[in-house]
Write a structure and sequence with these properties.
The structure is a homodimer.
Chain A lengths: L16 H16 L6 H8 L3 H8 L2 H31 L3 H21 L1 H11 L5 H24 L9 H21 L5 H17 L7
Helix pairs in contact in A: 1-2, 1-4, 1-6, 2-3, 4-5, 4-6, 4-7, 5-6, 5-7, 5-8, 5-9, 6-8, 7-8, 8-9
The first copy, chain A, binds a DNA duplex (30 and 30 nucleotides) through helix 3.
Pfam family, one (chains A, B): TetR_N
Protein name (chains A, B): Transcriptional regulator, TetR family
GO molecular function (chains A, B): DNA-binding transcription factor activity; transcription cis-regulatory region binding
Chain lengths: ~210, ~210
DNA sequence: GGGATTATCCAGCGGTCGTTGGATTAAGGA
DNA sequence: TCCTTAATCCAACGACCGCTGGATAATCCC
């Protein structure tokens, strides 16, 4: 239990103020985008003053970046843990690699369904041209590499027809984002949509390989 | 040749001012989004005053809607023309239906590659929750219906495995948008990317059906 | 030619934005 | 207890925002 640092306390300070600000800002940025969110909106959603937001997170652009870093770090953490398990299956054989690929994609879909703000921030960032390189290299590239390795390993049991794995991976990723956006757009639990999408994804993965001709 | 209407002329009035404003605004909105674009930016890009923009397009929200209507009307026009040809192939047989499906998707990919602002506006609109219904029903639904019909017709020559056609179509559409975004993000002509993506899409369409077991 | 109509620009209004200086309050360290 | 440090809020600054009233100029209709 860390001691409180000096300073005038808030009325309810169970969590550090910076975390509260980042959480509120992330939600708002995901919903409305950078320019439509005012620092006074963030402050009101957190329950503090505008100056307090600035004191903890600096400028608005820095706050935006901090929100991205937090969300994408969480995504990366989950995916890398799943990636470790998948890598372990790489050496054991093509069938295991294909199953590991299915598992990895399931983790990815589950994560984005649970945290749709990840999809929203991801899409918004793609629409900012000057940030493409950073986003792609720091967050997307490692995942893409892993999936491509899994694809290649799984292909050992039946030659992979697709000549450009990154196109396949990217298309799959965008399909998942589209699924999450569609889920957020409709009312209801979307349980059927989730089930159908998973069936589609698994069929998609299996369809990447030509039928085994015994 | 329509006569000029009365009023103080611009210095160079080859095209109607409203068209120039809409074209400039569409580019800016696609690049930066609604809130990051000021009416003074639109005016400067057009070469007129702010008041002139307001005079021709009303409020900023109306200008935004007009840009959407123009872009999506162009998309719809192209797709419906291609859809007419595809529908003609529906009755002739499963092989023709499958080929028509390929052609229709090619038209879709070509169009979005040529006009990436369509993808940008489309994605931005998806990120505005209160506009989902309108976007989906007015523009997406007719296309989806047509593609699903083509899928069903093509399936007559080999049972369609996929049980939820709209999931397949939506995933394909999002994959195309992802392809366009990736194209815009990289330098160079992207000729190889385009070729690879087309190969992927056609393999994807063929993979929707189980292998014919002779 | 002369009013009517239309397009354009200028200037400015009220409001909101991101940001900051400084006062206030509470905690830790001596 | 007193000084330092840190967290918070208040007030306000300058800049920019969407929007508009009104002046001006060019065309049409008669």
């Amino acid at each position: 239990m860390p001691r409180r640092r000096p300073g005038r306390p808030r009325r309810d300070d169970q969590r550090p103020t910076r975390d509260l600000v980042l959480a509120a800002a992330t939600t708002l940025f995901a919903e409305r985008g950078f320019d439509a969110v005012g620092l006074r909106d963030v402050a009101a959603a957190t329950g503090v003053d505008v100056a307090t937001v600035a004191h903890h997170t600096g400028t608005k652009a820095q706050l935006y970046d901090a929100c991205f870093a937090r969300v994408f770090a969480a995504e990366r953490e989950v995916l890398e843990a799943a990636g470790e398990r998948a890598r372990a299956a790489l050496a054991t054989g093509p069938a295991d690699a294909l199953r590991a690929l299915h598992d990895l994609v399931d983790v990815f879909v589950d994560f984005l369904e649970d945290r749709p703000e990840t999809t929203a921030l991801w899409l918004r960032r793609w629409l900012e041209p000057h940030r493409h390189a950073d986003l792609d290299q720091r967050y997307a590239a490692p995942l893409y590499t892993l999936v491509e390795e899994l694809l290649a390993a799984a292909a050992a049991g039946g030659a992979l027809v697709e000549p450009a794995p990154h196109v396949t991976v990217r298309s799959l990723v965008w399909a998942v984002h589209g699924h999450v956006v569609a889920l957020a757009a409709q009312q209801g639990s979307g349980a059927r949509e989730r089930r159908e999408f998973r069936a589609f994804v698994h069929r998609f993965l299996d369809g990447l390989y030509p039928p085994a001709t015994p």
